[in-house]
Amino acid sequence: MSLMSIARALPDPVKNAIKATRSTTGLALVRLFSSTGFLASLYYCFVSREFDREHRAVLLGRLNFARRMQSKGENDAFLRRNVHRLEKGLIMRPRRPTFAEDYIGPTVRCFADAAQAGIVNGQQRWANDVLTDYFSAVGNTPRIDSARQAFAGTQRDDDNRCVPYPHSQLPECPVSYDELMVLFRRRRSVRWYQDKPVSSELLEQAVRAAALAPSACNRQPFRFYISNGKEKAAEVAKCAGGTAGFHDNLPCVIAVVGDLGCYPEARDRHVVYIDGSLAAMQLMLALESLGLSSCSINWPDVEERERQLAKILGLAYHERTVMLLAVGYADPTGGIPYSDKKTETDLIVYN
């Protein structure tokens, strides 16, 4: 007889006593090992291995970043971050006569490597225009002059230059607070959908809107893995906890996946979750405006499920799932949990 069978055969009082003892012992260990950072590290080395995947994923992400830096191509995250830093320097009040000396050389080299590789996209146009304005604005120092000589950008005189602009050029906001609140109230977690396919065109429209979400240094370290169709959607949704009973009803599931290969330092390991969540929220609101409902599906860090989803989606080890989103046309008869929300009084702390 297996241990599992023996455990099932035990009377409830015995089971409850074992659970209580295990809980008390576990809490005592947590109390002991939480007293210092060193002991906490020992706890997650010898008592619990729950952070093993994150540790390895962060290291592999840093290694992936280094490999991208060594390759003669486009290091997307590095170039995005540094061009954004240049933009912030250009809009500074007062603007310093020289800035970015410590990273302007590597930025120009990264831009040039991508240009030599024949990469022509929005990022390259943006980098070209910002670098052009940067070299026109800053003074002379040996490092800046060296980078200026190496920069072989193109001066563009059209009206679509990708450079900082005054706030007054933003379009007028056509949505009132009350209208926005209607959209927020409509965006509910929907679990029951019509048996109706979701068009790729609408999904692409929603992603276009999500791409405008704020992102730390504009790195946008995430992608949306779309499983469109009930069979594919169910396969992915089953990997998550809390979907039993409704995963076969989902017409489409989107996995929001962060890329730890966008960072050279472990200190930035949580940015994929921040940026991915900001984009996911904007995506859900965009879907709602297009007549599609959604449901964010929690993605806890469980090793078996991480491996399962990584195999289905073909994820690298340094790519971490932020969350799953169910998407489809809501069944008008499907139930919506009331889900009482906290008020501003509960949430605001003035200091």
UniProtKB/TrEMBL annotation:
> Any idea what this protein is called?
Nitroreductase-like protein
Please provide, alphabetically and separated by semicolons, the GO molecular function terms listed in this UniProt record: oxidoreductase activity
Query: What CDD domains does the record tag this protein with?
Result: Nitro_FMN_reductase (cd02062)
Which keywords, in A-to-Z order, does the entry hold?
Oxidoreductase
What family classification does the UniProt entry report for this protein? Belongs to the nitroreductase family.
Write down the species: Stutzerimonas stutzeri
Q: Which SUPFAM superfamilies match?
A: FMN-dependent nitroreductase-like (SSF55469)
Q: Write down the InterPro entries for this protein, in alphabetical order.
A: Nitroreductase (IPR029479), Nitroreductase-like (IPR000415)
| Entry-linked Gene3D superfamilies | NADH Oxidase
Asked if the record carries the keyword Oxidoreductase, the reply is yes
